[in-house]
Amino acid sequence: MRMVTYREEKYTTPAHTKLFLRIYEADVNANSVVISHGLGEHGGRYEDIARRFVSVGLNVYVPDQRGFGRTSGKRGHVPNFNIFLQDINFVVKMARENSKKVGLLGHSLGGLIAARYAEEYNDIDILILSSGAFYLDEKTMPKPLFILVKILSFFSPSSTFSNGLDPRFLSHDEKVVKKYVTDPLVHDKISAKFVSEMLNNIKLVHKRADKIEIPVLIMLGTGDKMVEPEGSRQLYKEIESGKKSIIEYDGFYHETFNEPKKEIPIKDMVDFLNSHLSWNKE
User: Fold this and answer.
1) CA 26 to CA 33: how far, in whole Å?
2) Residue 231 belongs to a domain with what CATH number?
């Protein structure tokens, strides 16, 4: 069993975010993966995945995004989506200091952040997109919510309301759902400006998909009720990388890596990383 060195750090990023970061180290010179978490949650929920990656020789960096977990910012609010990208860039640069190669894994909202990051920055070597938030527009949003977003975006952009996500559809594993619901770092807040920024960046992620040229793995559960799986399928078609893969898990809910058969998607992630990264720095 490989030893894991774990530590927690706090940094102030160039975007003035007081960023909370979890670092799992296999070796000071190992290659690295940065994990971008989803809406309402925090990086601590990715400990099992992080430790699995460490077991095959990777260092793992897991920040809490602005407005989530133990990082600064009003809960569920971001004035500009680019702040997420700037904060991820800060972590990627840190990982790059001791790693020849750096990968980026994003789940749900984190998938949108990761994909947009890959489109705008040319400094990662591999991309994994899990149950990405790639499909949401004025037609698919509930009309009352869309009207509310429009009004608040103009008069009170930082005002927050419930994001409407139903935790029951995270996983078929009731223990996972219960742990999520009772987690003090989890919240259901989202601001009107945040929704507006998400809508804009969902349009951009498809418009600029041809910019993604690195190896990409897209993963989705066909039973996902929290994001529309078709968004991931559409993005897969638009990405022009010659090394792209998509895997669909029949009947799985949103968090494929927290399902009763979680070992299947986790192994798929490890195998994909192993195919495209050398674990050693050399």
Assistant:
1) 12
2) 3.40.50.1820
Residue 224 lies in a domain: yes
Query: With 50 as the cut, is the pLDDT of residue 88 above it?
Result: yes
Q: What is the pLDDT of residues 216-256, one digit of tens each?
A: 999 999 999 999 999 999 999 999 988 999 999 999 999 99
Separation of CA 253 from chain center: 16
Q: Total structural domains in the chain? A: 1
pLDDT in tens, 151-207: 777 778 898 988 889 999 999 999 999 999 999 999 999 998 999 899 999 999 999
Annotate 219-263 with three-state secondary structure: EEECCCCCCCHHHHHHHHHHCCCCCEEEEEECCCCCCHHHCCCCH
* Residue 235, in any domain of the structure: yes
Specify if 211 maps to a domain: yes
pTM of the model as a whole: 0.94
Identify whether 281 is part of a domain.
no
DSSP 8-class letter at 44 = G
Which residue matches tokens 């904060």?
87
Nearest to 64 by CA among 52, 78, 51, 53: 78
Angle at alpha carbon of residue 50, lines to 132 and 275, rounded to 5°: 75
Q: Which residues contact 133 (CB under 8 A, 6 or more apart)?
A: 38, 39, 108, 109, 111, 112, 198, 202, 227, 231
> What is the domain range of residue 201?
5-276
Distance CA 62, CA 237 (A): 29
**CB atoms inside a 10 Å sphere around CB 240:** 11
